[in-house]
Predict the 3D structure of the following.
Amino acid sequence: MHGSTWLCTYFRVIPKSSPVWRIARGQRLSFQDFEDGVVLFDALAGSTHLLDASAAETLAIVEEAPGLDASAIHAQLLERLKLSAVALPLATLEALLQRFEAMALVSASRA
């Protein structure tokens, strides 16, 4: 382009901090173990959810230790359930946390 000046700016990419997870504000969770799974009572919605062991333990970890990121929750979950990261990949846990967030059971914030 005649008479125009092109300015090229370079940006340094700064990685975002990992979100930390906690039980959603005002939420109270009540768990009851049954043979087929764990029933969770969601106090905010007044509804119940049937959870498998990994989902119930994930919520228990978030409730017991608010402010952990997904990798720390994942490490505790693998230890509690005596699983390998191959059996329960971090990506699966991250998807579960996002689903719980969509259900208003947990909330994420940047550290």
Summary: The first helix runs from residue 53 to 64. The first strand starts at residue 19 and ends at 23. The helical segments are 53-64, 70-81, 90-102. Residues 29 and 42 are 6 Å apart (CA to CA).
